[in-house]
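Good morning,

Attaching, inline, the backbone tokens for the sequence recovery test we're adding to the shared suite. The designed sequence is right after.
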């Protein structure tokens, strides 16, 4: 009979510890959700936009045309 009483006492002891463990786990889970974020607005940095300068297609032909005009003026004299 003493062995049965000891088993019941041990079972109740383990049951109490399990209840405490489950309760502690529930509080820990609730605390992690409560402290997961803060009330401050998130800092969002503006994206960096790199714009290449537009080069005109006439830029490469202007010098040869100017040279041709100078040669035409020189040849007409």
């Amino acid at each position: 009979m003493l062995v049965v009483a000891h088993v019941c006492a041990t079972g109740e002891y383990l049951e109490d510890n399990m209840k405490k463990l489950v309760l502690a786990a529930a509080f820990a889970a609730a605390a992690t959700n409560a402290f997961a974020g803060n009330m401050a607005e998130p800092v969002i940095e503006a994206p960096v936009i790199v714009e290449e300068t537009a080069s005109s297609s006439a830029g490469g032909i202007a010098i040869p045309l100017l040279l041709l005009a100078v040669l035409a003026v020189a040849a007409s004299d």
